[in-house]
Amino acid sequence: MHWNVALRSAGLWVILSLAAGQLTEQEKSTIIDLHNELRSKVQPSATFMQKVVWDEALRVVAEAYAAKCIWDHNPQLEELSMGENLFVGTGTFNATKALLDWFGEHVDYDFETNNCPEDKMCGHYTQMVWADSNRIGCATHSCDTLEGLDFKKATLLVCDYYPTMCSKTLYNTTWTVIQYLLCYKMQLSIIWAHIQIL
Ligand SMILES: *[C@@H]1O[C@H](CO)[C@@H](O)[C@H](O)[C@H]1NC(C)=O
Ligand SMILES: *[C@@H]1O[C@H](CO)[C@@H](O)[C@H](O)[C@H]1NC(C)=O
């Protein structure tokens, strides 16, 4: 009797996690390893680039948001000092393909102006390579339909990045390091001001 209940709930759990389309440990490693590999390959080469690590708190935020099946960014990004990349696809989900798709935008990105032509996208690429965004948490969700996109039975990938307070900082100038230190010093002084008020 007890076994029966346990087995049934275990079965239900498997069905629920499949329905949610959760990332496997293998996929999580692929996401981190490939980010680091691609970050090490930027052109011009980086002199100031942090290694990224997986972050469970970001994964939780990404998972809750992915479950909403909305093809648009989480409106709380700025409030949470987070950046976000989204990918949607039908068929078998392939994390490598999603990341290479984002990174592929580098062909339209101009390092000197830190921008791309108006009719092109480069925001996914720049989010992947911001020097200060060193924590990533991602989640997938199987969506029957999506709000804002005419896709059926698609897998939505949400990757959240932290921090982005000092992003838009380029990654290979001496100025970047100074800019970065100044930016974080400013953040620290804000934190300090709060502590003093408290
Ligand atoms: C996933 O996509 C990558 C890049 O397009 C490809 O090389 C790889 O074979 C794909 N993996 C699977 C299991 O389809
Ligand atoms: C970045 O570094 C590369 C070589 O490491 C150099 O050629 C390039 O001029 C640098 N770019 C800037 C903007 O400093």
TrEMBL record:
Cellular component annotations (GO), alphabetically ordered: extracellular region
Keywords linked to the UniProt accession: Signal
Record has Lyase as a keyword: no
PROSITE patterns documented for this protein: CRISP_1
Signal sequence extent: 1-21
SUPFAM superfamilies: PR-1-like
Keyword Signal carried by entry: yes
Protein name, entry field: Peptidase inhibitor 16-like
Species in which this protein is naturally found: Sinocyclocheilus rhinocerous
Taxonomic placement: Eukaryota, Metazoa, Chordata, Craniata, Vertebrata
Name of the encoding gene: LOC107718044
